[in-house]
Design a protein that fits this description.
Blueprint lengths: L5 H4 L12 H22 L4 E4 L4 H6 L15 E3 L3 H12 L14
Antiparallel strand pairs: 1-2
Helix pairs in contact: 2-4
Bound molecules: zinc ion.
Length: about 110
């Protein structure tokens, strides 16, 4: 993990406990090392994490799907802060073979 911290990958706006297990930390680390750090380097500017790991309580509070990959630390929602930059970021991520890439809010 070079460009991302466990703290930002587990932050929550709720007051609920969001402490990851050892297995979840491993999943988050895998995602960062195999995708996010590489994407960050190619992109060349900071990327903001909106939501990474979500404990069952947090996921429920934010209305996440019951089978959400956020529950296992296998999903991270990211943004650059602008629509055009998110589009550029999306195109970089597309080159990597990861199973799920979602443009949740039309790049905004
Ligand atoms: Zn998500």
């Amino acid at each position: 993990m070079k460009h991302f911290t466990l703290k930002e990958l587990t932050k929550t706006k709720t007051v609920l406990d969001n402490t990851p297990s050892k297995e979840i930390i491993e999943n988050l680390t895998y995602l960062v090392e195999n995708l996010l750090d590489k994407v960050r380097e190619e992109y060349g500017s900071p990327i903001t994490v909106n939501s990474g790991y979500r404990s069952p309580e947090v996921n429920k509070a934010v209305g996440g799907a019951k089978t959400s990959q956020h529950l296992t630390g296998c999903a991270v929602d990211i943004t650059t802060g602008s629509k055009s930059e998110n589009e550029r970021l999306f195109n970089i991520i597309k080159q990597y073979e990861f199973d799920q890439l979602i443009n949740e809010h039309n790049f905004s």
